[in-house]
Queue: 4 jobs
Job 1
Amino acid sequence: MDIEELAKAFQIDLLLEGRLVIERKSTERDSALYPRQLLTYLRLMGLQLGLLMDFGQETFKQGIQRVVNNHNPL
């Protein structure tokens, strides 16, 4: 795998104001893979916050998950 192929393998869906990554999905079942994928993007980009939005869930509220990289509670 060359560098160009590797770069294509990691493509975020949306980046808001250079600080918030939004990963969109449309699946009928939850998967533990999707939050880990988003966390990988956050780590590679050096960002702290991302939202996983799964439009395939029963309600919109069920489809949103907050993912935090290097969370340091006060």
Note: The chain is about 25% helix and 25% strand.
Job 2
Amino acid sequence: MLSFTVRMRFEDSDHEAIREHLIALTNGSRLEPGCVSYIAHFVSDDPNTVLIYEQYKDDAALEAHRNTTHFHDHAIGGLYQRMRERHVENLSAVA
């Protein structure tokens, strides 16, 4: 299983547009057969920062996710166009 977080920062003026992209991306991602978990958050003490926790069954499932229409429309065409910073952390489960 693949697990990782994606942290992105945005301008305050983009908050509502980012929220709409996150809702659409979350809803589409959760319907993918290889998606185990997809949870998008605004960081409570920094509302211009988004943290997305993602889990996929395997590399093929992640690749399938990156080729979906909702990923292209709302991540590449939405979030990535407005983000100011992006950081990915790959995770290793303890148990």
Note: The chain has a mean pLDDT of 97.
Job 3
Amino acid sequence: MTSVIVIDDDCDGADALSQCLIMKGIDVLATGLNGLEAIQLYEKFKPDFVLLDMFMPYYDGFYGLSKILEFDRNAKVIIVSASCTRDDKEKLIELGALDIVTKPYEIKSLTDILSKTNKEQNSNLAQSLYI
């Protein structure tokens, strides 16, 4: 089962996303409110994915993304944000974000990204076993 943590300063939005993911068979391990909690929760749970909002008080998504990837270069972080400029998107991809999903979004588009990434990872693992 795919596992995620959801980081968003909008508690209602995080809860709604979490419930939708659970209904789709995705294991939501925890939710957090800012970039610092993203790091702490990632280190504690080591989920398959982090769904990370960008603009939050105290510690934003840029901070969370960079620190998570310092801790684990292979972490899969998907940015879920209402407002990202072209420059923000370029910087996020440069920093190592797996993908960027713009709010409002359809839950299917988000779960498709999770599913596609897991399939690609499993395919790469299988290929490496035969080399």
Note: Helices lie at 11-23, 35-45, 61-71, 86-95, 107-129.
Job 4
Amino acid sequence: MKLSRYLAIFIGIVTPLAETVRRWSTWRENPPALFDDYILGAFLLYGAWRVGKDVRSGQRFLAAAWAFMCGMAYYSFFDQVHRYQSGLSDPAPISSGWVAVI
């Protein structure tokens, strides 16, 4: 449980920061594309906090946060693959291929 909690804290902080850098100049074009990662980060941090407070009752929140993150990652990965195959550029300062790999 400790590893899951620490990974949730790490990903809950890094994901919104990376998305902010990625969409810094283009967030006005599609605001939900930026803010969904803030929700993801908050959900992971909340789940980690609840597990730190009480492991037994916090597990369901952390599991739900990981499920939400996996669903978001699934969509993001296949969207990046589609963008890469279609030749569409990504707003990130790196290529769509590298965004999919990350």
Note: The CA atoms of residues 47 and 63 lie 8 Å apart.
